[in-house]
Design brief:
Number of strands of chain A: 12
Strand content of chain A: 15-25%
InterPro entries (chains A, B): HTH_LacI (IPR000843), LacI/GalR-like_sensor (IPR046335), Lambda_DNA-bd_dom_sf (IPR010982), Peripla_BP_I (IPR028082)
Helix content of chain A: 40-55%
Keywords (chains A, B): DNA-binding, Transcription, Transcription regulation
Distance between the termini of chain A: 99 Å
Largest sheet of chain A: 6 strands, parallel
Oligomer: homodimer
Protein name (chains A, B): LacI family transcriptional regulator
GO molecular function (chains A, B): DNA-binding transcription factor activity; transcription cis-regulatory region binding
Number of helices of chain A: 14
Shape of chain A: elongated
Organism (chains A, B): Mesorhizobium atlanticum
CATH class of the largest domain in chain A: Alpha Beta
Chain lengths: 358, 358
DNA sequence: AAGGAAAATAAAAACGTTTTTACTACGAAG
DNA sequence: CTTCGTAGTAAAAACGTTTTTATTTTCCTT
């Protein structure tokens, strides 16, 4: 019976199939495919031809077992905080999209791990590094003092973070210049005459939340004005949070006349709250938002934004991780993006405020 | 030198370490860990204790090589169509979140493959199945005649689709009752007096776009009214598409007095266009949207929605895939969700239309 | 008490690679 | 004409499992 050959033609060809087909040994086949210089050009040609003819594809599991590599790049993704399916984390689609594009064509597969809390994320990161579940790691939501960065830096496990911690460590990262962005937004509002500016911010555990406060405060300092620190709200970046904090802030004795918003889902909540309060944007209150998924242009009314497409950051994250896994030095793999200011409003309440303030 | 033992204590323990530690052979260790009935309860206890003591974790690559399984569940994710980073695909965060939650605790890892076109998705699906790059597959964006479903059904590769094709095939799937949803929205508008209703729909290659048209038409038929087929727009589900198609439709000689929108990013574009045209929602035009990420509540003005949290569908997708990979029958693994109607407007233009139409 | 069945474990083979080591020609040098 | 280095390839070992086959032990039966 030709059972053997029939079965073999069903299954995908292995290095052994190639050996039988070409007459070379499996060791030579492997070297030829890996581009080792010890095999002659002629044999390599023959082997490559046979590989193409049979549609040979290296078995990732065999390679992985022998080399200890996994050919996996893992991304830590925050699971939506779930309470009532509140809208947050939408930008992750574009982050993943960017990373996926960068990894496309490489030998690496993109895998995703969800986490529910920071401790959860730490535990997963540790497990991935200790057990070598992946060859590299990408994560975001960096804290001022981030245990993941400390741990991975020490163990030498390749990773790229979206965001910088506040410890003096050397590691590959991609970030947005949040200090600059918050400063730009706040300074613009102060120049427009505003003195009571709110900052709808992320939780202050996050490093970038602190960066934004820094920029916010610097803008006031540079203008010689006391910063409205009592108008800084911190929370999850859901739409509900944007709405609730706006309602609360506007209920204060000296409510804000302008708001700086940390992301687009929060902004939607802010706008919703302002509408509910009967306040007109550009008339009774000004709003400047940060946008990384290009949606603010469709808000009504359109608001001034600091725009940085996050897909670009995602792509860079993937590129950096590839280079890191190829042996590049982490110190060289850092980039901080400065968003673009898109002015859609005058942000001076139609000039009214500048008159009342000297 | 104690080099050997030192190095061994550094590396994670293997089945050999356990063998040396307990005195049993590696075969027995493997059987004990896998719960085989041939090993006595006493030895299993000893081995389990040693495994716990040494922190043993099975090496996935070794298992994968031997068993041919990969312990990977792969999701096909559409890459954002990218032209100008238009906002779309945001719901994928929640789909992945749901799947990740379902896979949590199982032996399976979630991996993500991005694709740029339907052909791309087909090629990837075929590669995953042929080369057994994963043990199961999840995908969405099902076409009326979907090559992936046909191919995977035939090859018997485990998969769950988000959406149903229009061919009479038996396969595991999760879906929304789009026909019902479109019917509910359209019928409500017709009951409110509308006769010129627009349907801002997905591209008609997609099966669910056809389902919505079916429901849309049925509502008209049941009311004894000619369906406004000329007001059906199909396109990508970006915000820009919502805006552009609304502007175009309202430019017609007999413009729609109401719009049914296919998802929330499109709805945002629709609302933006209506605002730009100076049309008030609930006054000059009514809008009913489909929402799967719980954001419509914050639109201003709020619109009536058909709400179905997509994270729930994601979780079910993961559950179904796990059961499928465990050997369950695909015929049993189907569920169609019916969204919830959340009426935030009267959707009858304040009663004005019902007066003019009998 | 010896034989044998059943139970428990050990040993070996296998999965598909890469890498190290061993072999075989062949040409150059003495 | 022999010896040796070298280039090219083959053979074998290893990665960590699971599974099949072989061996040992135990205990029952006659």
């Amino acid at each position: 019976m030709a059972e053997g050959s029939t079965a073999a033609s069903q299954l995908s060809p292995t290095i052994k199939t190639l050996a039988a087909h070409t007459g070379f040994s499996i060791g030579t086949i492997s070297k030829a495919l890996r581009g080792s210089p010890v095999v002659t050009e002629q044999t390599r040609g023959a082997i490559l031809a046979a590989a193409k003819e049979l549609g040979y594809q290296a078995n990732a599991r065999g390679m992985a077992l022998r080399t200890g590599k996994t050919y996996q790049a893992t991304v830590l993704m925050p699971l939506t905080s779930a309470a009532g399916y509140e809208w947050d984390g939408v930008e992750y689609t574009q982050i993943l999209s960017g990373i996926s594009q960068a990894l496309d064509g490489s030998d690496y597969q993109l895998s995703v791990h969800g986490y529910r809390s920071f401790d959860d994320a730490c535990a997963i990161a540790r497990r991935v590094a200790d057990q070598k579940l992946a060859d590299g790691l990408i994560f975001s939501g960096v804290l001022a003092e981030d245990a993941r960065i400390a741990m991975l830096t020490q163990s030498g496990f390749p990773f790229v973070s979206l965001g910088r911690c506040r410890e003096p460590l050397v590691y590959a990262h991609v970030d947005v210049d949040n200090e600059w962005a918050a400063h730009a937004a706040t300074a613009r509002l102060i120049a427009g005459g505003h003195r009571r500016v709110a900052l709808i911010n992320a939780d202050q555990r996050f490093s970038y939340a602190l960066d934004r406060i820094d920029g916010f405060v610097r803008a006031f300092r540079e203008a010689g004005v006391d910063p409205s620190l009592d108008l800084i709200a911190g929370g999850d970046l859901s739409t509900r949070f944007g709405r609730d904090s706006t309602l609360a802030l506007r209920g204060l004795p000296q409510p804000p006349t302008a708001l700086v918003c940390v992301n687009e889902s929060t902004t939607l909540g802010v706008l919703s709250a302002l509408d509910a309060l009967g306040l007109g944007v550009g008339e009774d209150v000004d709003v400047i938002a940060y946008d990384d998924i290009n949606v603010s242009a469709y808000f009504t009314p359109p608001v001034t934004t600091l725009y940085q497409p996050i897909e670009v950051l995602g792509r860079r994250l993937g590129e950096f991780l590839l280079r890191l896994m190829a042996g590049d030095n982490a110190a060289q793999l850092t980039e901080v993006f400065r968003p673009q200011l898109i002015a859609r409003q005058a942000d001076n309440l139609g000039g009214r405020l500048s008159r009342s303030h000297p």
